[in-house]
Amino acid sequence: MKEQDVVEMLRHYRHDWLNDLQLLLGYAQLGKLDRIENKIQHIIERSNQERGLDRLNIPKTMVWLYQLNWRSESFQLEFQSDTNDQSTIVDDELLLTKIQKIFQILPSYQEEFQQYRGQLIFEKVDHLLHIHLIFDQNWTDLDALKEEMDSLSFIDQVMIDNQLEIVWQQD
User: Fold this and answer.
1) DSSP states of 2-67 as a string?
2) What 3-state class would DSSP assign to 145?
3) What CA–CA distance (Å, rounded) separates 65 from 67?
4) What is the CA radius of gyration of the chain?
5) CA of 46: how far to CAs of 23, 78, 108, 120, 133, in Å?
6) Which residues belong to any copy of the SpoOB alpha-helical domain (predicted)?
């Protein structure tokens, strides 16, 4: 990671924390304790998500995902790690390459001015890491998107029932 990337990351973190603190101050000045509690709970949840990613020991992937959330106007991801708090060995470079391939395809199918909120879930089953990327279904051509995702050799399953869910395993 270059120094400029670190500075940018710190800038985004500082910006997000200042926004959170300003909201908390505003709620406190208005006496809205319920909103303060909700905001603090949201901050704790976000911190726990980041800690879960940190335990996967995937620094390159983490930086890319954080940058996606800060730079993209179209995609925002939340993270969930269900790895039983055990340290997991993952090929960080390979994982990042796979995620980038998916995100090279997705923009071709997004609706104009649509913001996509998704979940990236890491689940440890036996000794394999199962990864689920889940979005709502507001895509221009969901069948074509499914077909293109299915054509990626590492993808195990693409489901489009109530949402778009892309599943693969990572060694």
Assistant:
1) -HHHHHHHHHHHHHHHHHHHHHHHHHHHHT-HHHHHHHHHHHHHHHHHHHHHHHTT-HHHHHHHHH
2) helix
3) 5
4) 18
5) 16, 8, 29, 13, 17
6) 4-51
User: pLDDT tier at 162 (50, 70, 90 boundaries)?
Assistant: confident
In the chain, helix, strand, coil percent, each to 5?
55, 25, 25
Residue corresponding to tokens 């693969």: 168
Measured from the Cβ of residue 81, the count of other Cβ atoms closer than 10 Å reads 22
Nearest to 107 by CA among 148, 156, 66: 148
pLDDT of residue 138: 87
E strands present in 11-113: 75-82
Residue 56, pLDDT above cutoff 90: no
Q: How far apart are CA 95 and CA 105, in angstroms?
A: 16
Q: Reply yes or no on whether the pLDDT at 6 is more than 90.
A: no
Length of the chain (residues): 171
Place of tokens 């300003």: 22
Between the alpha carbon of residue 15 and those of residues 1, 12, 58, 79, the distances in Å are: 20, 5, 24, 20
Q: Kindly report the number of other CB atoms within 10 A of residue 126's CB atom.
A: 6
The CB density around residue 75, as the number of other CB atoms within 10 Å, is 17
By the 10 Å C-beta count (0-12 exposed, 13-18 middle, 19+ buried), 85 is classed as exposed
Are 62 and 54 in contact by the 8 Å Cβ rule? The answer is yes
